[in-house]
Design a protein that fits this description.
This protein has 15 helices and 12 strands. It is α/β, with parallel strands linked by helices and 437 residues long.
Length: 437
């Protein structure tokens, strides 16, 4: 008697097929490349894929509006920088020395700008520890003002002017990506050093960029930031980056994988090292209290969805190629509301942020929902620091460049532009790609 053939062989690996299908779809629609061979293999890798070419290092920092919301991410960066200094033996090392691209939104955009803008000595303006202390001590200065002082956010605030002076997107030690939402065009706008290097019309002052990405449309007495490029040709009416792109990780990955001028060997997620820092999710007590909280919740939900999509795209490579640091229950606003911040307030704020690094968070598992992470946030940072050091040391020994940068030199007093091509295995001075807007 004939028997009905089995629909599936017992040895057929369903998880393997599901992973391959999801990876192909995710890579095509999320990151914009569609070579199935980058992901398709005979069996799921048992260990993270390592390429002899090295891996592009990406830092992404969330933000939902206020610069003061960057305390959790700032604490994580200070912890990471301290670990990198200890492991490398370089006591003057900065975060920018170990990353090739930085993306930040809202508070994360301010942190990225502080850590990657070039100072008078050619080094980044701030160490991670200095940036954290500055944000904690000057939280009141970043807060939206009412009445006559609302103009502080209509034009760049004094705090940003004091930090960045006349520095522009071109004055960064590595490529940066900082989003806002442009009310004039009704679309997100991504401030990019690549675009700034390509054309004067996309070069903006860093103080304007930070004011734009931090503009909070839900705060009473605030207004959109009206700004223009250095040459005056591009005008933007901006509200905060958290509205348009609270978690810029996917945008940063897309920028690298589709930018062959700068990153010629980045063919897939296996060629990346990505750390994504959350801004700290606030657990609302007593229900939702109005539009600002709804906007914040929506922003946090979108950030979590981006994290889930990116984690799924990395699949088996996420073991050491992608790490997400997020804290839950942190409310920086409850510690003080006064114009000045006392030393005790700062200590409490930073102590609370440190406690968040001891948390173990939920993480996405391919087709299996969520599970509790085996490592605390601080332990994840230590593991990632180890991977960054390995990549840093590998580049010292390899003659093959990972980043190819186009150096653009534009005198501030002249519109004349000259350019030279340089290659480097550890840094990229100025970047050039076609405008992406």
């Amino acid at each position: 008697m004939a028997t009905t053939p089995a629909l599936m062989e017992p040895s057929f690996d369903v998880d393997k097929l599901s992973y391959e299908i999801f990876s192909i779809l995710e890579s095509k629609f999320l990151f914009g490349y569609d070579d199935a061979k980058l992901f398709l293999s005979t069996s799921p890798p048992k260990t993270p894929v390592k390429t002899p070419r090295g891996r592009v290092r990406i830092l992404s920092i969330d933000g939902v509006g206020r610069a003061s919301d960057g305390l959790v991410a700032g604490t994580a960066l200070a912890r990471l920088e301290a670990s990198l200094r200890k492991r490398s033996g370089d006591t003057s090392a900065r975060i920018a020395d170990f990353f090739d691209v930085a993306a930040g939104s809202g508070a994360g955009g301010v942190l990225a700008a502080m850590l990657f803008t070039r100072g008078p000595d050619g080094r980044p303006l701030f160490s991670a520890a200095e940036a954290l202390q500055f944000l904690a001590k000057n939280r009141a200065a970043f807060a939206p003002k009412k009445g006559l002082l609302r103009g502080i956010f209509r034009k760049p605030g004094a705090i940003f002017r004091r930090v960045f002076a006349d520095a522009t997107l071109r004055d960064t030690v590595k490529p940066v990506l900082i989003p806002c939402y442009d009310l004039a065009t009704g679309a997100p706008f991504l401030f990019s050093r690549a675009d700034a290097a390509e054309t004067d019309g996309y070069d903006f002052r860093m103080r304007d960029v930070c004011a734009a990405t931090c503009a909070d449309p839900t705060a009473a007495g605030t207004a959109p930031v009206e700004m223009k490029s250095v040459d005056g040709r591009t005008r933007i009416v901006a509200v905060g980056g958290g509205v348009a792109m609270g978690n810029p990780t996917a945008a940063a990955i897309t920028h690298v994988l589709n930018n062959k001028q700068e990153f010629p060997f980045a063919a897939g997620v296996e060629d990346l090292l990505v750390v994504s820092l959350g801004s700290g999710e606030v657990l609302a007590a007593g229900g939702i209290g109005g539009a600002p909280e709804l906007v914040r919740i929506a922003g946090e939900a979108v950030a979590d969805m981006v994290d889930q999509a990116v984690a799924m795209a990395f699949g088996h490579n996420r073991a050491c190629n992608y790490v997400r640091i997020q804290a839950h229950g942190f409310n920086s606003g409850k510690h003080h509301t006064s114009k000045t911040t006392s030393t005790m307030d700062v200590r409490k704020l930073l102590g609370a942020a440190e406690e968040m690094l001891a948390q173990k968070n939920m993480e996405s598992v391919l087709f299996r929902g969520k599970k509790m992470s085996e490592q605390a946030n601080g332990e994840k940072l230590e593991s990632f620091a180890s991977e960054l050091i390995k990549e840093h040391e590998r580049r010292k020994k390899s003659p093959l460049p990972i980043v190819i940068s186009k150096q653009v030199m534009t005198p501030r007093t002249s519109s004349a532009t000259t350019s030279t091509i340089t290659t480097t295995t550890t840094t990229s001075a100025r970047t050039s790609t076609s405008p992406s807007h």
